Amino acid sequence: MSNTVLDLIGNTPLVKAQNLVSNPRVELYFKLEGQNPGGSVKDRPAYNMIKKAMERGDITKDTKLIEATSGNTGIALAMVARLLNLDIELVMPENSTVERVQTMRAYGAKVILTDADVGIEGARDYAEERMKNGNYFMLNQFGNDDNWQAHYHSTGPEIWNDTHQKITHFVSSMGTTGTIMGTSTFLKEKNKGIKIVGVQPADEARIPGIRKWPEAYLPRIFDPKKVDRIMEVTEEEARAMTMRLAEEEAIFAGMSSGGAAAAAVRLCEELEDGVVVSIVCDRGDRYLSSNLFEK
């Protein structure tokens, strides 16, 4: 029995791919982060960033939070803030799926939609200006060490234990880069030979949740030394693999998960042997209003 839904964050399932890998000497596992109570991997850093800020006295019940988000972090922050009775304003591009906006508002958050043409960078700029000119506190997921440390203390240990310490490769899409930074830090401490693979969109590809940041917007928490290899995926690859995850593995996920899975499957076919873990960062039901699952 749990006291609150926050107690349900983490300890997500790790399931073995049944049909996507043809290499018999490689095992591919998917970590199902959509099983978190807020529906994504972002529950972990959202809770940790707010909890640590409260412990340090950076924020109180009277603090007004503001954060730019592409969706999943905003939902997670809205959930945590509601349970802790905190006021939060979330800023996101206007082309975000309606499910995401409605979910944040359902939790009681105020949602500001910025021009789609300037993307998440524009949302970040807007939130920065509001913070400078108003009584706001920004958690700043892109530069907050409590983001990646959430994964150092939970995601990494879970993967290490659930693979019985046999993991050889970890694959993750890169957005704020918190997941890959924290998990890499932990896994490399356990075994320096584990290879960390980051997934980025190919040029011109638009894959929600995966970014190739302009230099000025590169997350401060990102340390390139913690990533052994970068694999790029096209939008077509990410879309196709998202469908394959649903149809062949019964894993219903978003496009960033499809992008990571596409890279992971490609990696599996290259290896002589190994145990590969790929992050499935959310659920597909928050993309139903988009054309992602249209045939």
UniProtKB/TrEMBL annotation:
Keyword Cell inner membrane: no
PTM-bearing positions, type N6-(pyridoxal phosphate)lysine: 42
Superkingdom of origin organism: Bacteria
Cofactor(s) needed for function: pyridoxal 5'-phosphate
Pathway note: Amino-acid biosynthesis; L-cysteine biosynthesis; L-cysteine from L-serine: step 2/2
E.C. no: 2.5.1.47
Cross-referenced PROSITE patterns: CYS_SYNTHASE
All residue ranges annotated as the Tryptophan synthase beta chain-like PALP domain in the record: 6-282
Keywords noted in UniProt: Amino-acid biosynthesis, Cysteine biosynthesis, Pyridoxal phosphate, Transferase
Signal peptide (UniProt feature, chain positions): none
A GO molecular function held by the record: cysteine synthase activity
Protein residues bound to pyridoxal 5'-phosphate: 72, 175-179, 256
Keyword check for Amino-acid biosynthesis: yes
GO biological process, one term: cysteine biosynthetic process from serine
Top EC category: transferase
This protein's name: Cysteine synthase
Organism of provenance: Salinimicrobium sediminis
